[in-house]
Description:
The protein is mainly α. It has 10 helices and no strands.
Amino acid sequence: xxxxxxxxxxxxxxxxxxxxxxxxxxxxxxxxxxxxxxxxxxxxxxxxxxxxxxxxxxxxxxxxxxxxxxxxxxxxxxxxxxxxxxxxxxxxxxxxxxxxxxxxxxxxxxxxxxxxxxxxxxxxxxxxxxxxxxxxxxxxxxxxxxxxxxxxxxxxxxxxxxxxxxxxxxxxxxxxxxxxxxxxxxxxxxxxxxxxxxxxxxxxxxxxxxxxxxxxxxxxxxx
Length: 223
């Protein structure tokens, strides 16, 4: 794992500590919730009609989101990343449910991302090397990626990053945090039927495994 990957993982893990069991707030950048009616909106709507086995994403968009989130939270030996934790599944289910108001936001953002990558690198995001993908993500974060109107490039980056954190560290019942991968990273014990008197009095970190029954309730994308 490169130093860049390590610093990115450290940032996301650090941001999750203390809030791992809660629901992250959607960034203020999403105050611009009303989609403008223009040609880009029509393109995004048409783009969303492709086949897919998920709850919301078509197959092409699913591959892109999986690659994007993996660069935000890259895996390494012994250190689960976004793919390992099922972050794509979490975002897919959320956009089909609680985050349904962000469907057009994602559609348009993914269309703009694809257009930017083809313009600057003559290839789709998923075909770029990890280093090139990182350059694209940095351009989004810094507002330097062209072709984004609504959502803006930083708004799209911030939202996907927020949802990546949620998929890594939220309760597995929402479809992410597969096998409690995120909780293991931060030492969070998750749900427990009870803590013994010794557990309550101990000054050491609790080392018991999270209750696994909840994991079975998490829906998953069809493969």
